[in-house]
Amino acid sequence: MIRLFNAYFPTRTLLLTITEAILVTLGFVVAVVFWAGTTVDWIDLLYNNGLGRILLVVAVFVVLMYYFDLYNSFILANRREVVTRLVGVLGSAFVALAVLYYAFPEISLNQRSLWVGVLIAAIAVPLWRRLFSLLNRSARFSERAILYGDGPLATALMHEVTNRTELGVKIVGFVGKDTATVPGIPLLDGDLDELVKRENVQRVLVTMADRRGRLPVEQLLRLKTSGIYIQDGPEYYENVTGKIPLDSLRLSWLLFSTGFHVRAALQLYKRLFSLIFGSLAIVVTSPVMLLAAIAVRLDSPGPALFRQKRVGEHGQMFEIYKFRSMYDGSDKKDLTPAEHDDARITRVGKWLRRTRIDELPQLFNIVKGDMSFVGPRPFVPEQEMEYAEKIPFYKERWLVKPGATGWAQINRGYNVTLEDNRDKLAYDLFYIKNVSFGLDLYIMFATIKILVLGRGGR
Known about the structure:
Oligomer: single chain
Strand content: 5-15%
Structural class: alpha/beta
Largest sheet: 4 strands, parallel
Order of helices and strands: EEHHHHHHEHEHEHEHHHEEHHHEHEHHH
Strand order of the largest sheet: 4-3-5-6
Helix content: 55-70%
Number of helices: 19
Shape: globular
């Protein structure tokens, strides 16, 4: 795993992204040099910002491949989905480039070079993806690992690693009691040193829950000095999943681990960012908000704005603003989260929720300082108190300002049940532990993807 923007990404996925960018770049260079025809094209490539124009096309391709989820774990393992989505990327690339070239003709490639470059990319990228898939699934190129310990964390890691070949790790077994139920991963018995040699293991993940007096420290240290990578199970789980393992979370870990502290400089940046860009966003979106307010008033009786108490930083209450998407008074009768085809939602409200326009008034909360652009989503006090009673460490999510979007929103989606919110807390704690300028930028970039594709709205 490689850490970027204070989040973790599989090394193989990043390698795939880089190699595909290089492949597309070479395809367009070949198109310009060998198919566009003359010495003029060489000169154009070298001295008239030809390479810059090619890199713009490559950037469009890579961004679209990200937006079409072509680096998603599930898609990487599904050949049919890859081909289907690559066709979508090619079509969208033509549209995006046509708009860019119409607006800025000076940055365009000549038509023949563009068509030939796209054709080369359309052939080369699927072939490379096929080869990458074969290499990715090969056990020969996977790191062999065993889990030392059993329980919920060990089982969760087995499921996660087994389903994600891009991690490049193969779990060959676990040491502990016969409590794990993951097919194909056996219980190993014997001395740890012998198991490591017999199974040709390169990594040992310590997933033991209660380690007091039971952890073979000297043996693990001896293995480490011999070149075996010894890693804490909760740390690896955090890296792989982007969330904190609640089942194995201890108060001492919260106390002594890095993170869980927002520096004064970062707090200042977040406040200035919220104030400046929140104000600009209000100005830019004010025509849309005016039209939305008129539509809400015409569609059903009641105010255009919906106001509701929410729990913010340090448990302080604030009033959140949204466009009303339900019939007036529905929030007083029923506090349950909205479902698909919820009878409480108005006709205009369905459209507002689908497009997320109902969230735009939260820009005023952001400018006021009640919220930030990025942070855990705030809930009503009744829900928050219920979750705080039933979910351990829930109040820790109040350590930072709530946000209009967040790490849980881009990874988890909509939450309804208690278990949903327990999983959401695991993502929120990861964000609070790793909060940074880079992580905020990544979350906002991923949020734009969700908004453009219209995902998750109810």
